[in-house]
Write a structure and sequence with these properties.
Number of helices: 2
Distance between the termini: 22 Å
Largest sheet: 4 strands, mixed
Number of strands: 8
Helix content: 10-25%
Length: about 120
C-alpha cells in the first residue's frame, strides 16, 4: 500500500486551484502547504495527512497518471464536472470501463492524467 505520492507542477497556484476543486469533491482537501521557498514549495492533499503532493521539486509535464478513489458513481461524475469547470481537459468521460470499474479521466494543467474511480458492485 502506498503512503503518499506527488507530481510536479509548473505553476503551483494554478495547479492548487485545479486540485482544490478536483480533490475537494473526493473529500481530499488541502491539508498542508509548505511556505514559499521551503525546499519543494509543496501542497499536500488528504484526509488526516497528505497522501498526494503537488510541488516544484518533481519534474512537471511528464504525463503521469494518478487515480483517486471515489465513494460513489455520483462522486466520479462530480469530480469530472468540477475539474472541467476548473480548467481541466476531458480525457475520458465518466462511465463503466469494465465490470465494477466506473471512472472518469481528465488532464491537469501540466498534462497529467488524473482519474477518479468507483469500484462498487
Amino acid at each position: 500500500m502506498a503512503d503518499h505520492t506527488g507530481i510536479g507542477a509548473a505553476d503551483g497556484a494554478r495547479s492548487a486551484a485545479f486540485y482544490d476543486h478536483a480533490l475537494g469533491v473526493l473529500r481530499l482537501p488541502k491539508v498542508m502547504q509548505m511556505r514559499e521557498g521551503a525546499g519543494t514549495d509543496g501542497i499536500g492533499y488528504g484526509e488526516d495527512y497528505p497522501i498526494f503532493w503537488i510541488d516544484r521539486f518533481h519534474p512537471h509535464s511528464v504525463k503521469q497518471h494518478t487515480a483517486f478513489v471515489a465513494r460513489t458513481k455520483a462522486e466520479v461524475d462530480a469530480f469530472y464536472n468540477a475539474v472541467l469547470a476548473a480548467g481541466g481537459t476531458d480525457n475520458g468521460k465518466p462511465g463503466l470501463r469494465r465490470p465494477h470499474y466506473y471512472a472518469a479521466f481528465v488532464l491537469d494543467p501540466d498534462g497529467n492524467n488524473i482519474e477518479a474511480v468507483y469500484r462498487g458492485a
